[in-house]
Amino acid sequence: MQRLQSKELAPNFLTLSLYSMLNQISQSKQFRDRLAIVSFFQTELENRNRTLSDEVIETKANLSFQVFENIVHQLGLDFSIFATKENLINYRLVEKRNHIAHGEYVEESLEDIYSLVDVVINMMNTFKNQIQNAAIEKDYKSEKYR
C-alpha cells in the first residue's frame, strides 16, 4: 500500500492495519490498552501505516461461506455478487469435500461436477477481477485521497 499515511487508508484497510492492536484491546480489561487506540487516532494518523500482518486475513483452515464473506469485506469488495452462493459453498462444496476427506463415499454425476467446477471458476474469476479493479482504482485509499 505504498507506505501511505494511516489517514489515507480506506476504513477496511485501516482496520486491517490495526488488527493486532484491536485484537489485544478487545481481550484486555486494562485501561492503558484501550487508551492506545485513542492515542493512535490522536497522534499517529499522520504516520506511515504499518505493514499488514499475514494473519489479518484468516481462512480458518476450511473456507466456508462466512469466512469467504469476511475476506471479501476485509478487502472492501462488493459482496452482493456472491450473496446467493451460500448453499453452493457450504453444502455442494465444503460439506462434500469434508465427507470425502473423512473417507466417506459421495456420489456425484459428472454433469454435476462439471457444473460445480464452472460455477467455482466463475466465482474465482469474479473475485480476482474485483481485486485487480480495486487495485487499479486505488480502492485501498480513503475516498478523500484517491
Keywords:
146 residues, mainly alpha
Could you explain how this protein is built, in words?
- The protein has about 150 residues and is mainly α.
- The protein has 2 domains: about 1-55, no CATH class; about 65-140, no CATH class.
- Helix content is about 55%, strand content about 0%.
- The chain is built from 6 helices and no strands.
- Helix 2 (about 20-25) packs antiparallel against helix 3.
- The longest helix is centred in the last third of the chain and has 27 residues, at about 110-135.
- The mean pLDDT is about 85.
Tally the helices. 6
**Can you write the helix and strand succession as a string?**
HHHHHH
Strand content: under 5%
Quick check: average pLDDT? 87
Q: In terms of per-residue confidence, which ranges show pLDDT below 50 for 5 or more consecutive residues?
A: none
Label the overall shape: elongated
Rg is 19 Å
State the oligomer. Answer: single chain
| Total beta strands | 0
Major sheet summary line: none
Task: Assign the structural class, choosing from mainly alpha, mainly beta, alpha/beta, alpha+beta, or little secondary structure.
Answer: mainly alpha
Cα separation of the termini: 13 Å
Count of the separate structural domains? 2
Range of helix content: 55-70%
